[in-house]
Structure formats: C-alpha cells, structure tokens
Amino acid sequence: MYSARRGAVTGAVLWEVRAAGEHRVLPDGALDLMWHEGRLTVAGPDATATSVRAEPGSRTFGLRFPPGVAPLLLGVPAGDLVNRRVALADLVTGTPGAGPDLLEHVYVDLWRRADPDPGLIRLAALLDRGARRGVPVARLAGMVGLTERSLRRTSRDLFGYGLKTLSGIRRFQRAHELVQGGAALAAAAAEAGYADQAHMTREITRFAGITPGRLRTASTRSP
User: Fold this and answer.
1) Which of 37, 69, 94, 174 could form a disulfide with 192 if both were Cys (CB 3.0 to 4.6 A apart)?
2) 60 in a structural domain
3) Domain residues for 30?
C-alpha cells in the first residue's frame, strides 16, 4: 500500500510504502530521501524500472525532493546518482539523527547548510514544467538563455537526464495513471500526448520494462 501527503513543515511530499513480495519501481524523475530499517538513504533518479522484494510487514518512509533541488542540497550532480541508492552519510557529513517522523527535519537541515541559489531553484522548476508540457528543447533553451548543449548538461546535473528523457518520463507517468485507472489504451495514448498507441507502447516498454497491458495490473510503487 502506498500513501502520500504534504509535509506540514516543508510542503514536500512525504510518502509511505507498506508492501510484501515483488514490486516494480518505476522511473518518476525524482530523487527521494528514504528511511528503511533504520537506514537513511538517497534514492537517485531511475532511468528504467527495477524489481524489489519486500518482506512481510516491511515499511519504507520517504520524502520526495522538489524537482532539481536535491543536487543543490547534496552537492552531487543528479547524473551521478542515476539508478543508485546511496547512504546519506556517504554524501553529506554530520547529518542529524533521523527516524521516519523526522525526514522533514533532515530536509530543513540540508537546506540550511547548502543555502541553495534561488535562481537555480526557479530554473529547475521552469524546466520541469516545460518537460511536463512537452515544450521542445530548443524553445526551452531560448527561454532560459542557454545553448541546447548547455541546457542538456544543466538538465543532467539537476534531474539526472536530458530534458528529452525527462519529458518522456513525465509523459510516461501520465500514461501510467491513465492505464492503471482503466482508460482504453488508445485513449490513454492520446490524452498523455503520444503520437499514437504504438508510440506509447514503445515508451512504456522502455521505462517500465513491460507492455501497457501488463502495466495495467502490475504491482508498482515509488522508490
């Protein structure tokens, strides 16, 4: 079972997973701070789906960093964390003690230490909105005053991928919601912004590792 809410202190998404057995973790373009079995871990951005097995009664708590913010707080490019799970203590020294109810406290501590550039935070938010809307890379580059090459590098540092891949993941997320919600595949493809159903099938297979039909009933979750 997956549940999520907004944190009262930071407004960040706080989530909890109670699961047992095999589950498929899907790419969501996010970095998370996770608490599991007494360990505090940073989950990097996933480029492909991974399968994880949880023991009965297992619980994982997480805080989802706002888009592009984690690298600014951790001092590590998101591209260095793709498909990785790394102990927070290996990235940041002297982190405060934590538990499942203190993830926001850790987040605030990281923010105070890093004092991230507000301009970079605004840039990350703008790029993520552009990716969600499918704005072409060339147009986004012009909007922010960067060359496409510089924008690609900036996107990898902030999100772990170039903007074209990030846009694909955002479109895939929308398709996933529609398919698991019972939408017909052709209708889901059109609403999510794909050229056609075949295009959606290719992209879902790329990111989820299974076909849209299997995704409809698969056991999936966030990191």
Assistant:
1) 174
2) yes
3) 2-114
